[in-house]
């Protein structure tokens, strides 16, 4: 085992770590004690649920409340927490508590896992991540208990507050509201400002990324002193939330929002815009959305959150880098500049690879699922975008697709969580191309 460990690259360690986490979760969820009726759950359903929880997605084939017992729900919550923070972060946390020395290779894997720019101070950053996560989840749980304890009683109210706070912060989208109807998510709270606000804030805080936390904690409200990464993340996040909400309100005003008071329409629009970028909760019927709203939602799911966060998608920075790159080329500018800083060419190449790889996986997954079953193209694409972006929103067909299509969604959720680029690099291993440059020959483009 030691020899294998030494031969593995950092990306391979991350991939294997998540695979082992998913497999362990699947085994535990198969146990009779994990289901509400005391029967063993099929491996396929357990695997899908374990993958969805570990990859903080939220797509389900069994209602979380109706099918899983308290033990099963606890296993799901633990998988969400480990998947959201990153299994390496949890491992380092345990090592710190046991006062074990953190080696250079572990620091490197941790840097890759949380997308840190530099390896220096990575253990200190990890401690901040753990403390910040526990702080925000605890505050969120207490605030949600204010609403849930009067409704469900002390025991269930406390559990519901903890479960939904962790699920929201980790951008997972799992819920326990199935007793009033399966797969209802938070529809019954569409006009509840407390629940909506707390869930939205937890999703946003978890989705902006640990690196942004660190920058904000040091520089407070001094915008000019923020790192370029922080400026891009905050400005893009704000634009996507407001822009997505406005478009959703316009497109759904006479559909799923019809008959609601104006304040509730605004609240639902804001919630949808926030949750569509990677969380998976919903306060409106996702399956009843107009085609235009589905398209906007798919774009938001594709973009996702920010690097080094609990969110999925190609990330906000990737989109900004590509937009700046295109603009610079159209304007024939000297360089790709944003916020008075020039982007490094490595970032541009990496953004291009991430965009193309994700699009390739999404298109391949969509074609494969359409071959398996003739569902509506928009519904299939919605599920595929949701899986790849680790969002968890559903048009309602996930539990009806065949086994082969479910495995496609499992694979996409896995790639979406570890990152398509990380998965691709893990297949490459230690192989290096010979440093030979071929002769140049021009071709026509466009």
Automatic annotation (TrEMBL):
Annotated compartments: Cell membrane
Superkingdom of this protein's organism: Bacteria
Residues annotated as transmembrane: 12-31, 74-98, 134-150, 193-212, 232-251, 310-330, 351-372, 407-427
Principal place of residence: membrane
Keyword annotations of the record: Cell membrane, Ion transport, Membrane, Potassium, Potassium transport, Transmembrane, Transmembrane helix, Transport
GO MF annotation terms: potassium:chloride symporter activity
Name of the protein this chain belongs to: Trk family potassium uptake protein
Top-level taxonomy: Bacteria, Bacillati, Bacillota, Clostridia, Lachnospirales
Record carries keyword Amino-acid biosynthesis: no
Gene Ontology, cellular component aspect: plasma membrane
Topological type in the membrane: Multi-pass membrane protein
